Amino acid sequence: MTPWVKRLIFANIAVYLVQISVPGITRLFALVPAALLMRPWTIITYMFAHSTFGLTHILFNMFALFIFGPRVEQRLGGAHFLRMYMIAGITGGLLSLFFTPYASIVGASGAVFGVQLAFAMFYPRDRIYIWGIIPVEARVLVIIMTVMTLYGGFRGGGGVAHFAHLGGYIGAFLYLAWAKKQAPSAKWQAKVAGPPPSKVAIGDWRGVDINRVHEVNRDEVQRILAKIQQNGEGSLTSQERVFLGHFTPKDA
């Protein structure tokens, strides 16, 4: 895990342990959008608190952060990643003000949805395996989740803060657009594209044992190896080289 992903997961787990240890504290952390002016701290605290009725809520959010977060943080750098995460969570809370102003909202979902959107923008064709078996490209997953969020939000019910999720998408998109505009074009492109391919060592790709690659990554590894066979190692992008490097034999 990358540094800020690790810290955020730790912070969420720590707050959850406080929640289950101190009765009533969840109400102090929860965001009620209509009461934001009277409880301004909740626009931050709500995204670190989770439902204490079982582990599903926090486990799903932390697992998604673990899956999408490291590559996004590596791509953006720690400072940009943390700012985008927090802004996505804040915009999730603010959007809820217009649609569910009196709901009590907790959860990192808005912030994590923002990370998911950034992942899809940077790696649109990467496959995400739903329930570990259904492959969906990252860009398609965002479209599906947006449609589900809009449907669930306007349909109402279910106890899910759908508009906080959508707000997370909006916040991340706006932050990335702003950051790109603020930075010199060449500098930003280098930031989001990673180092030049020639600077990224991948090791002995001929020694990759495809049978030892987890099925979640196997198709992508096979695609990259096929690309090398067809066009040569020089045809790989920086991201492909970094990804393949995780599976090549390392010197002792």
Provide structural commentary:
This protein has 11 helices and 2 strands, in the order ααααααββααααα. A hairpin with a 3-residue loop joins β1 and β2 (134-137). The chain starts with a helix and ends in a 7-residue tail after the last helix. By secondary structure, the chain is mainly alpha-helical. Helices cover 63% and strands 3% of the residues. α6 packs antiparallel against α7 (138-155), α6 (109-122) crosses α8 (162-182) and α7 (138-155) packs across α8. The chain is elongated, with a radius of gyration of 20 Å. It has 2 domains: 3-192, Up-down Bundle (Rhomboid-like fold), CATH 1.20.1540; 197-245, no CATH class.
Set out the fold topology.
Blueprint: H1 3-21, H2 25-29, H3 42-45, H4 56-76, H5 78-99, H6 109-122, E1 127-130, E2 134-137, H7 138-155, H8 162-182, H9 185-193, H10 215-231, H11 238-245
Antiparallel strand pairs: 1-2
Number of helices: 11
Q: How much helix is in the residues?
A: 55-70%
Radius of gyration: 20 Å
- Strand content of the residues, in percent? under 5%
Spatially, the strands of the biggest sheet line up as: 1-2
Measure the end-to-end span.
23 Å
CATH domain class of the largest domain? Mainly Alpha
H-E string: HHHHHHEEHHHHH
Short overview:
The protein is mainly alpha-helical. It has eleven helices and two strands; from the N terminus they run ααααααββααααα.
